[in-house]
Write a structure and sequence with these properties.
The complex is a heterodimer of chains A (159) and B (115). Helices cover 30% and strands 26% of the residues of chain A. With 159 residues, chain A is of the alpha+beta class. Chain A has a single domain, classed as Heat Shock Protein 90 (2-Layer Sandwich). Chain A has a 6-stranded antiparallel β-sheet, with helices on one face. Chain A starts with 6 loop residues before the first strand and ends in a 13-residue tail after the last strand. Chain B has 115 residues and is α/β, with parallel strands linked by helices. Chain B contains 4 helices and 5 strands, in the order E-E-H-E-H-E-H-E-H. A 5-stranded mixed β-sheet of chain B has the order 1-2-3-4-5, sandwiched between helices. Chain B is globular. In chain B, helix 1 runs parallel beside helix 2. Classes of the chains: A alpha+beta (159), B alpha/beta (115).
Chain lengths: 159, 115
C-alpha cells in the first residue's frame, strides 16, 4: 500500500480504512491509487473507477497544495468506507479553510482560459454527492459514489 | 507513471509526442518546459499528440490551457491530436473542447497550420 514512511497512522476495520499522510505529491498518488483499487474491489466500472480516482486525486491535491501548502507539519487525513450502498471518501487537511462559495465557475467565459480552478468542478462532476465542511482549522471534503447508480459525469456540477 | 515527451519536425510544424500522465508535478512541468523551450527557439507551430496520454488531471488541463495561450500570445498556433476517450470527455465537461483546435489525423493536422 505505497511508501510506509509517508504513513504515520493507518487504521483499518472491515469496511473502513483511514490514513494520516504527509503533505506531499506521493501522498496524493497513494490515495488516488487506493481509491482506484477500492473502487475496483467494490465492482465499479472502469469509467467509474477512473472518475472516482480522479475526484479523490483532486480532493487530495486541494488538501496538500491549497490547504496544507506542502507544510511538513500539517497532515492530510483520508478515509475510505464501503457502506454497502456507497463508497464514502473523506479528505481532511489542516490548512486555512476553503469557502466553496468563493471558488469561481471554471465554465464561465472569463474563466475558461484560466490555468487553475477546475478541481472542485471536476469533483462535483464525477461524484454523486459532495460536501465541503470548514473545520477549525482546515477543510473536510466528503465524496460519495453510490453503488449501482447511473453513470455520472454529465451533471456539470457548478463551482 | 511519469510523462515522456519527444518531438518531430514535419513541414515546419513541431509534433510533440506525449505519453503517460500529465498531472501535478513532473508531467505538468515537463510540458511547460518543453513549450517554453520550443517558443524560445522560434518554433511556434506546435501539434501536441496526446494519443498515448493515459491521464490528465486539473493541473494538466491547466498546463494545456497555459501552453495554448502562451503559444497564441507569441503569434503561433497550438493544436491537439489523437485524444483518448478519457481526455476527450475531460475537455468536453470543462468546455475546453471548443477552445482547442482538435484533430484526429496527423497529416490533415499538419496541413491545417498557417504557412
Amino acid at each position: 500500500m505505497g511508501a510506509p514512511t509517508a504513513i504515520d497512522h493507518t487504521k483499518m476495520t472491515a469496511n473502513r480504512v483511514s490514513y494520516t499522510l504527509d503533505s506531499t505529491l506521493d501522498s496524493v498518488n497513494k490515495v488516488e491509487h487506493t481509491a482506484e483499487e477500492l473502487a475496483a474491489k467494490i465492482g465499479f466500472s472502469e469509467d467509474e473507477r477512473h472518475r472516482i480516482a480522479m475526484a479523490v486525486r483532486e480532493a487530495a491535491v486541494n488538501a496538500v497544495l491549497h490547504g496544507n501548502a506542502y507544510d511538513p507539519n500539517k497532515k492530510m487525513m483520508v478515509s475510505f468506507e464501503n457502506t454497502g450502498q456507497s463508497l464514502v471518501i473523506k479528505v481532511r487537511d489542516q490548512g486555512k479553510g476553503l469557502d466553496p462559495s468563493t471558488v469561481p465557475d471554471p465554465l464561465s467565459p472569463e474563466n475558461l482560459l484560466k490555468q487553475s480552478g477546475r478541481g472542485i468542478f471536476l469533483i462535483n462532476s464525477f461524484m454523486d454527492e459532495v460536501q465541503i465542511r470548514t473545520l477549525d482549522p482546515g477543510t473536510e471534503i466528503t465524496l460519495v459514489k453510490h453503488v449501482g447508480a447511473p453513470a455520472s459525469g454529465g451533471r456539470g456540477g457548478g463551482s | 507513471m511519469t510523462m515522456k515527451s519527444s518531438s518531430r519536425q514535419i513541414d515546419g510544424v513541431t509534433v510533440l509526442d506525449l505519453s503517460g500522465r500529465i498531472t501535478l508535478g513532473e508531467g505538468s512541468v515537463i510540458l511547460r518546459d518543453t513549450i517554453r523551450d520550443l517558443i524560445g527557439r522560434g518554433q511556434k507551430r506546435i501539434l501536441l499528440n496526446l494519443g498515448d496520454v493515459s491521464y490528465i488531471d486539473s493541473s494538466g488541463i491547466g498546463e494545456l490551457v497555459s501552453a495554448f495561450t502562451t503559444v497564441r500570445n507569441q503569434g503561433g498556433e497550438l493544436k491537439l491530436l489523437n485524444l483518448t476517450k478519457k481526455v476527450h470527455d475531460l475537455l468536453q465537461i470543462t468546455k475546453l473542447y471548443t477552445v482547442f483546435d482538435i484533430k484526429d489525423d496527423e497529416a490533415t493536422a499538419i496541413k491545417s497550420f498557417a504557412k
